[in-house]
Amino acid sequence: MTFRRTTPVNLSQVLPLDGKKRREAKRFAKFATVGALGSVTDFSVLNALIQFLGLTPVVANAFSFTAAVIQNFFLNRYWTFPESRQRDVRRQLGQFAVVSIFGLAINTVVFYFVDLWLHPFWANLITDSHLAFTASYNFAKLFAIGVVLFWNFGVNRLWTYRGL
Questions:
Q1: In terms of C-beta density within 10 A (0-12 exposed, 13-18 middle, 19 or more buried), how is residue 64 classed?
Q2: Hey, is 80 helix, strand or coil?
Q3: What is the pLDDT of residues 80-137, one digit of tens each?
Q4: Domain range holding 71?
Q5: Which of 41, 49, 67, 125 could form a disulfide bond with 60, CB atoms 3.0-4.6 angstroms apart?
Q6: Is residue 78 part of a domain?
Q7: What is the C-alpha separation between 17 and 83, in angstroms, rounded?
Q8: Is 7 a domain residue?
Q9: Is residue 14 part of a domain?
Q10: Contact status, residue 43 vs residue 80, Cβ threshold 8 Å
Q11: What are 26-35's pLDDT values in tens digits?
C-alpha cells in the first residue's frame, strides 16, 4: 500500500470570500478558539463544583459560565478584536457582560432541559448512577455551549465590537 502526500487545503479556495467576509470568518474562528478555551474552564469549574463541593448542576453551571465569560472577555479583547483596546474597557466589559447574562440565561435553559432529557437515556445505558449523572450534565453542557456560541458571537459583534 502506498500513501500519497497531499497538499493542505487552502480555505480561500474552498470558500471564496472577499476581504471583509474573510476577515469576519477569521474573527469567528478566533472567537470559537477563545470559546473552546473558555469551555475548558467552564467544564473544569462545573465538574469541580459538582464533584467536590456538591453544588447542583444548575447552580454550578452559573458559576462555571461566569468564570469562562471573564476569561473569554479578555482573550477576545486582546486577540480576536485587538483594535477594541482603543475603546474604554469598562464600557466594553459592561456590554460583554450584558450579552453574557442573556447567554447565561440561554445556556441555563438549554442545559437544564437537555440534561433533563438526557438523564433517563444515560441512566438506562450506564448502571453506575453517578457516572450516568456525570455523563448527562456534561453532554448537556456541551450542547448548551454550542448553542450559545452563535448568540455570543453575533450579538457581541453587532454591539460590543461594532465598527471594528
A1: buried
A2: helix
A3: 999 999 999 999 999 999 999 999 899 999 999 999 999 888 888 888 989 989 989 9
A4: 21-160
A5: 49
A6: yes
A7: 22
A8: no
A9: no
A10: no
A11: 999 999 999 9
